[in-house]
Structures are given as structure tokens and as C-alpha cells.
Specification:
Blueprint (H helix, E strand, L loop, with lengths): L9 E4 L5 E4 L7 E4 L2 H20 L21
Antiparallel strand pairs: 1-2, 2-3
Length: 76
């Protein structure tokens, strides 16, 4: 079975010309870059950091008995 989780990256041009990127589905995930590609890479990195901060970089050995890991893959 294959499933995917889709999120949206929203781009805005800042007053200083930088591109601001955010993911509205995940509050607090924002970043910026000098180009759209750089902003995209930076906001994906911010998402990764937010998820690792919240859930840990590695699965906990103390996970609930009825649980499973889920790997999210972000592709262009």
C-alpha cells in the first residue's frame, strides 16, 4: 500500500526582495531564500527540523504498543 501526505508551500516576496516560504498546514514552519529554489529548500529543512524537534530524530523505544512508524518522503 502506498500513501502520501501532501502539504502546500506558499511563497511571498518580502519587502527586501527575499522570497518567504511557509507551509500553512504546519504552524511555525517558515523560511526564506534569495530565490524560490533556495526558499523551497530552506522551508523543507525547517519542516524537517520541526518534525524532529517534536517527534525526535529516531523512533522511541518506548513507543505505544499499538503504534507504527511513518516515513514521509518529500519529492519535487
Amino acid at each position: 500500500m502506498s500513501e502520501s501526505l501532501r502539504v502546500t508551500i506558499v511563497y511571498e516576496v518580502g519587502e527586501d526582495g527575499w522570497i518567504i516560504a511557509s507551509i500553512p498546514e504546519v504552524p511555525g514552519v517558515h523560511s526564506q531564500g534569495r530565490s524560490r529554489d533556495e526558499a523551497r529548500a530552506n522551508v523543507i529543512d525547517a519542516l524537517r527540523g520541526m518534525l524532529e524537534l517534536r517527534f525526535g530524530a529516531h523512533p522511541s523505544s518506548e513507543a505505544a504498543p499499538d503504534s507504527e512508524s511513518l516515513e514521509l518522503v518529500i519529492a519535487a
